[in-house]
TrEMBL record:
<feature type="domain" description="ABC transmembrane type-1">
    <location>
        <begin position="76"/>
        <end position="291"/>
    </location>
</feature>
<protein>
    <submittedName>
        <fullName>Carbohydrate ABC transporter membrane protein 1 (CUT1 family)</fullName>
    </submittedName>
</protein>
<keyword id="KW-0472">Membrane</keyword>
<keyword id="KW-0813">Transport</keyword>
<feature type="transmembrane region" description="Helical">
    <location>
        <begin position="162"/>
        <end position="187"/>
    </location>
</feature>
<dbReference type="InterPro" id="IPR000515">
    <property type="entry name" value="MetI-like"/>
</dbReference>
<keyword id="KW-0812">Transmembrane</keyword>
<dbReference type="GO" id="GO:0005886">
    <property type="term" value="C:plasma membrane"/>
</dbReference>
<keyword id="KW-1133">Transmembrane helix</keyword>
<feature type="transmembrane region" description="Helical">
    <location>
        <begin position="21"/>
        <end position="43"/>
    </location>
</feature>
<dbReference type="Pfam" id="PF00528">
    <property type="entry name" value="BPD_transp_1"/>
</dbReference>
<feature type="transmembrane region" description="Helical">
    <location>
        <begin position="208"/>
        <end position="233"/>
    </location>
</feature>
<feature type="transmembrane region" description="Helical">
    <location>
        <begin position="79"/>
        <end position="101"/>
    </location>
</feature>
<dbReference type="GO" id="GO:0055085">
    <property type="term" value="P:transmembrane transport"/>
</dbReference>
<keyword id="KW-1003">Cell membrane</keyword>
<feature type="transmembrane region" description="Helical">
    <location>
        <begin position="113"/>
        <end position="133"/>
    </location>
</feature>
<feature type="transmembrane region" description="Helical">
    <location>
        <begin position="272"/>
        <end position="292"/>
    </location>
</feature>
Length: 300
């Protein structure tokens, strides 16, 4: 038995050898560029690099400056608000739309295309479109006032207290269609016999969704959450196109902070420190997902 096991291992290693050889460039690229670049960024975040990188280490000074900067604090607060509301609303609206589409409605392909179409647009285009729609001079506010409600006010992009919610509207418009399609694919994977059994037992539809269908779709929900969360952390284009971080710094986000310090303020050390904090945020998202998917339970 031991000899067979030893001979079986080389055979498994040699299986699909050409595919393994072909994947070597991709693995080297991942290791050298991604891991190497990440390590380089983290290391130089402990330096006082300005226009060009230099190995003059200053310990945690860059991180102390980062967390003392009001602009960074505002960007973190905005990301928390935008992220929490995006997760909740995109999942709820996406699931409701998916459940409605799963009823085999007429013109399903047309509706699915309409809902998914915004995701095909770039965030720059989406941001500009919603900048026009929310503009008080010729957007929603202007249209409603033209209909007779002259006291109506709706200018979120020009109000520092609610500007992040104007960005949220555009983000939901673009991303909810993708969430709908992912969850619809999960719903279509549910065995029809489960629905029949629920109807025979007289279980209301909302209870069937809440206590049977949603728990069965756990892997789909986890994957969808990771996709949404990764997009939230790196949100940049939408903010730049809609508000450029304004009014003032009211709609700043971490990705814009990193870009401005690295390429405009010419302070690479501060930009690297902010990038490292974003990396930590992504790790906080990815590690629990990987544990739940691959290490949280024993495979039979």
């Amino acid at each position: 038995m031991t000899g067979q096991a030893h001979t079986g291992r080389p055979r498994r290693l040699l299986r699909n050898l050409s595919s393994k050889i072909a994947s070597i460039p991709m693995m080297l690229t991942a290791v050298v560029i991604f891991l190497g670049g990440t390590t380089w960024t983290v290391v130089y975040s402990f330096t006082n690099s300005k226009l060009l990188p230099r190995a003059n280490f200053v310990g945690l000074d860059q991180y102390e400056r980062l967390w003392d900067a009001p602009r960074w604090i505002v960007s973190i607060q905005n990301l928390a608000i935008y992220g929490a509301l995006t997760l909740v609303f995109s999942l709820v609206m996406g699931f409701v739309l998916a459940a409605l589409m799963d009823q085999k409605i007429r013109f399903e392909n047309t509706f699915r295309t309409i809902f998914l179409y915004p995701f095909a647009l770039s965030f720059i285009v989406t941001g500009l479109v919603w900048q026009w729609i929310l503009n008080p001079e010729f957007g929603v506010q202007s249209v409603v006032r033209a209909l007779g409600w002259t006291s109506f006010t709706f200018d979120p992009l020009y109000n520092a207290d609610i500007v992040i919610y104007g960005v949220l509207i555009a983000g939901l418009w673009q991303g909810t269609g993708l969430v709908m399609c992912l969850l619809l694919a999960g719903l279509r994977g549910i065995d029809e016999d489960i629905w029949k059994a629920a109807r025979v037992d007289g279980i209301p539809m909302w209870k069937t969704y809440l206590f049977i269908i949603i728990p069965m779709m756990r892997p789909v929900f986890i994957t969808t959450l990771v996709i949404i969360a990764s997009g939230i952390v790196k949100v940049y284009d939408l903010v730049v196109a809609q508000t450029s971080g304004g009014p003032g710094i009211a709609s700043e986000v971490p990705a814009k902070y990193v870009y401005d310090y690295m390429f405009q303020a010419q302070n690479l050390g501060q930009g690297f420190a902010a990038s490292t904090m974003m990396l930590v945020t992504v790790a906080i998202i990815i590690v629990p997902w990987a544990y739940l998917e691959f290490g949280g339970r024993k495979r039979v």
